[in-house]
Amino acid sequence: MVLQQITxxxxxxxPVPIAHAHCDxxxxxxxxxxxxxxxxxxxxxxxxxLDLQPPSAQNPQAMATYLNTMxxxxxxxxxxxxxxxxxxxxxxxxxxxxxxxxxxPNLHDMFWKAAKLCSxxxxxxxxxxxxxxxxxxxxxxxxxxxTKNRTNVPWxxxx
Length: 159
Description:
- With 159 residues, the chain is an all-alpha fold.
- The protein contains six helices and no strands.
- Helix 2 (33-51) packs antiparallel against helix 3, helix 2 (33-51) packs antiparallel against helix 6 and helix 3 packs antiparallel against helix 5 (107-123).
- The longest helix has 36 residues, at 60-95.
């Protein structure tokens, strides 16, 4: 009770102005490039996992090295898929506005599918899903830059 009174008094003595913003950061800080980089790592790690050959069970040192390498590849793949998902969700929830949905009616479906592919890439070792995620991120990339009326960016292809 006393702590609440002290806090209330401090707030009266040092009022904090209310800030209003339409997003978490100033306009222009969004870019799907990070999601693409994370997704490229998911594809790369998925390929490495699928290409890694287990050694003979009679060689414990080689088996330990194999298991260590495999666990590292898996950890990196899952971490990068999660980071890609976070970037995708930030773009979806913070950057895109109702006017973008009018311009691109499939926007929600596009982002929902991309986020679901991120989850699939975390729990599976499936090169097809990793490549589908890369294609989904490319589509998001294209739509993002179209909303800014920019076509002179890497990876952009006019639809």
